[in-house]
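Possible race condition, two jobs.
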Amino acid sequence: MIKGEKESKETNIQVVVRLRPRNTKEITENSSVCISTNGVKGKEIHVRPNSYEVTSKTYTFDRVFGPEASQFLVYNEIVSPILREVLKGYNCTIFAYGQTGTGKT
């Protein structure tokens, strides 16, 4: 850094995962659950490809919201702070990715 030059702000990219609850069809068909979390809020998801396997793979993210997490909780903890930054004049982006009809709105 050159003397007298302002230090640039750090870019902060976070990956947040929200697992949706099972829908009525999945419950009625008694489909297996292949992804689990450690409660409503955490940092890890556990993926078990099929119900016959005992072991699972664990993936870590900045934040993970389990199926029990409400839209309200996710909004208050993730979206609301970003909107406050936008209102202060900062450029912010929220990128929601997922299958059609899974609640990204």
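Job #2 (started ~2 s after job #1):
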Amino acid sequence: MAAPLSGQAPPTAGSGPARPFRPGAAAPLRAEPLLRGAGGAETELWRAGGVMAAGCLEDPSLERHFKGHRDAITSVDFSLNKKQLASGSMDSCLMIWSMRPQMRAYRFVGHKDAVMCVQFSPSGHLVASGSRDKTVRLWVPSVKGESTVFKAHTATVRSVHFSSDGQSLVTASDDKTVKVWTVHRQKFLFSLSQHINWVRCARFSPDGRLIVSASDDKTVKLWDKTSRECIHSFCEHGGFVNHVDFHPSGTCIAAAGTDNTVKVWDVRMNRLLQHYQVHSAVVNSLSFHPSGNYLVTASNDSTLKILDLLEGRLLYTLHGHQGPATCVAFSRAGDFFASGGSDEQVMVWKTNFDAADYGDVLKTQKSGTSMNGTHHTPQSEMDCGVHLKKTKPQDSGRNHAQQEEETSLANTLEHIMGQLDVLTQTVSILEQRLTLTEDKLKECLENQQKIIQNKMS
């Protein structure tokens, strides 16, 4: 049961909605009060417009909240199986929360300063974190809480992100660079260095071929991972760019900025598709729903907002956090999303809306992805790669058997990857201990030599 939280007034009326995936402002519609939490004013939720047919959408609901951090939350991320939720905080700790009732949380201590970002590996067997202590750590999310350290940045690390195959890690830092690392060998590979101010965020594209970065130089840059070249800079933001991410199709990116806006660009045409002005303060974070139809944002105005990308309008405003909402992330399946705030709370929300549709979309997206990880981009330019199509029933028996075989193979590969993650981490920890033992032995031998020399003299 969440602790009582006071609500806030709904957003003011704005102009009409933007056309789906076309440039222009997507201002908020008139908001109407819709839901209050049990026991008074736990949460307030507002649905914009009130024009949807009854039964089309169910409202998001606050499922639970976690308290344990001693300072503002900076980052949240779900594991693949939704059994765990990771959070980072200005209190220098990383915490792993169990989604099962009455299960204890793990507090991981190792960073010497604020933890700015956390993310689970695709398999869920590793967690990466970046810190103001200039390091990146890889953790095994278990009771022991063992970790290995990556060192290459010379300033605060603000962002960590795994590639979809789990083989690479991209990090962004106040040293104005984006760096790419190999996970299993745990080695630094190369830097991307064209930003002229702090880099707040960096993300791989779903197919791993591109990297997008957001900076305090007011630009969003798109990079080719193979050539290591900047292939385009988006300069439409009027302030620092706090967060950026790829649409699940890989055809679009969305960015959040200190100018209170959220912008969506097509990375094939390099043009602005949508421009949302729905927050009244800095937008700190955003996350795409796995279906690609929705975007959730977190802002210093203390609200979370859910945007319908196909309609180009605001769907919901959620009031829960006391003070700035600093981070937000959907689960891998999209049925939950988590948020963190300066109130030191992590909140878990059940998505609910469009539940009947997004499961079909996820299945369609999975079937449209080949075994080598390459996503088959839809043909439409204006819908940002989202298609809702129903498969024909012909050859259902053969297709079902083929799907079962593919699912079994995928599960086996995922298990192998997970075991490889654990094995790599174990070897790395053993190497660290061996190095430490060698250093101690060397120190002992040096001390012994000094003692012998003193006696001889």
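Confidence is low (pLDDT under 50) at residues 1-43, 49-55, 364-396.
Logs attached separately.
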